[in-house]
Write a structure and sequence with these properties.
With 426 residues, the chain is of the alpha/beta class. Helix content is 36%, strand content 15%. Bound molecules: pyridoxal-5'-phosphate and zinc ion.
């Protein structure tokens, strides 16, 4: 059984039972899962987690699923790699890459979908659906296959081939919508009102979003139960960004970090900031779709929707659901928000590939170029322990880097090889 009390409106605090709900009837605010932290603190321990499965479900005490048999294709437990070469290039001595591009469907979305799919099955839905910027469709289709239920995925029609094929191969019903993600999302919200389907990021959203907390837990565990000084996060809706922060604070409050006293959660337990959590949260978006960064830079408390025009399609949400909440996290954590110029996205991909042997998609290019900016601007100092989240796999956005392909074509003879090789300059 999950240690869940119910759902609560993030705006007016009204409480709801833990059902397939996502908005407050009263004020239309988003709902969030509320946990019974007192009971969790009695059972949870570093040791208990270490003995758990090698997936996000090792943190199941802090996830909202009741089932003992989650829909698990082994999302999570991805490598945290000390990035010596990239660190040297950027002038950082303690840089780590959280390589979430190696998840089962090749993006961090497997974390959120595993939780949402588990809840959908618990609630008795026979159809798993989503409004996707690409990676979500892949993950929903994969998890529905595993659960043995139907998948219906909605995608914008201009997606990269790698994401279309990477979803279609699992056999979902795929609806290609002539519009951008925000159009897809609007359509899906209407469909969700009329069809009894579990849309992972609509009616399952409170549960879905909790899956991203595991990106915080895992980094803390992999660093030996401590938190980094900085994290750099590519951001679309802002959900992941807020949940990494929530994960760090939950660990601190539960006494799970080395050298940190546990403390009881206050009445506003989902937004508590534990003083031991000093991680600065750096948000990155691509300039062609940076509504949250723009709002943060102007000091506004309102995120104005934009029409996306960006190479980073997985981040192309013009009307971000968690925009305001993620801005609050930037401010609370003394972080920064930066819009990476479009022409610096591919150089970011190449820099990571050439220094660390990790091939990320465009969102990862945004993260790496955003990291570089945070160092250059002085926000991150050389000895600071820094983690950059690489959330998706480069094989899905091959179009972006096609120009790197430039082989020497030779006849299969030694002489032909040497001639061509020497001509190029060896
Ligand atoms: C969806 C996605 C994100 C952003 O997630 P949000 O929670 O919507 O901010 C980041 N990177 C990749 C690769 C994604 O697919
Ligand atoms: Zn409300």
């Amino acid at each position: 059984m999950a240690f869940v009390n119910g759902l609560k409106c993030r705006e007016c605090d009204r409480e709801y039972p833990p059902e397939a709900l996502n908005v407050c009837d009263f004020c239309f605010g988003p709902l969030e899962v509320v946990y019974d932290y007192a009971t969790i603190s009695e059972v949870i321990s570093q040791d208990r987690i270490a003995k758990g499965p090698l997936s996000i479900w090792r943190y199941r005490d802090l996830l909202p699923a009741d089932s003992d048999d989650p829909v698990d294709i082994m999302a999570g437990f991805t490598p945290l790699i000390k990035a010596r070469n990239l660190g040297k290039q950027l002038g950082l001595n303690n840089l780590y890459i959280k390589n979430d591009s190696v998840n089962p469907s090749f993006s961090f979305k497997d974390r959120v979908v595993s939780v949402a799919a588990t809840k959908a099955v618990e609630f008795g839905f026979d159809t798993l659906a989503c409004a996707s910027t690409g990676n979500l469709a892949c993950s929903v289709a994969a998890h529905a296959a595993r659960a043995g239920i139907r998948a219906i995925v909605f995608i914008p029609s201009d997606l990269e081939r790698g994401k279309i094929i990477g979803a279609a191969v699992y056999g979902p019903t795929m609806i290609s919508v002539e519009g951008n993600y925000d159009d897809v999302n609007r359509l899906c919200s209407e469909i969700a009102d009329n069809y009894p389907w579990a849309f992972v990021n609509i009616n399952m959203r409170p549960y879905y979003a909790e899956g991203s907390k595991t990106l915080g837990y895992e980094v803390a565990e992999q660093l030996g139960w401590r938190l980094p000084d900085h994290v750099v996060v590519p951001t679309a809706s802002g959900a992941m960004f807020t949940k990494i922060w929530k994960g760090f604070n939950e660990l601190a409050c539960l006494g799970m970090l080395d050298g940190v006293e546990s403390s009881s959660f206050g009445p506003d337990q989902n937004t508590v900031h534990h003083p031991a959590v000093t991680t600065r949260m750096h948000m990155t978006q691509a300039a062609g779709c940076a509504p949250i960064v723009t709002a943060w830079e102007s000091g506004s408390l309102q995120v104005m929707p934009v029409r996306p025009d960006s190479i980073a399609k997985s981040l192309a949400i013009g009307n971000p659901a968690d925009g305001i909440y993620s801005m609050r996290v930037v401010n609370k954590s003394a972080g920064t928000a930066y819009a990476v110029p479009e022409e610096e996205v591919v150089p970011g991909i190449k820099l990571l590939a050439e220094t660390e042997g990790i091939f990320t998609e465009t969102a990862g290019g945004v993260a790496i170029s955003g990291l570089k900016h945070a160092v250059d601007s002085g926000a991150i100092k050389p000895d600071d322990l820094t983690v950059v989240y690489i959330t998706g796999n480069g094989l899905k956005t091959q179009e972006a880097v096609e120009s790197v392909v430039n082989p020497l074509t030779v006849k299969p003879f030694m002489g032909a090889f040497e001639e061509a090789f020497n001509q190029r300059g060896g």
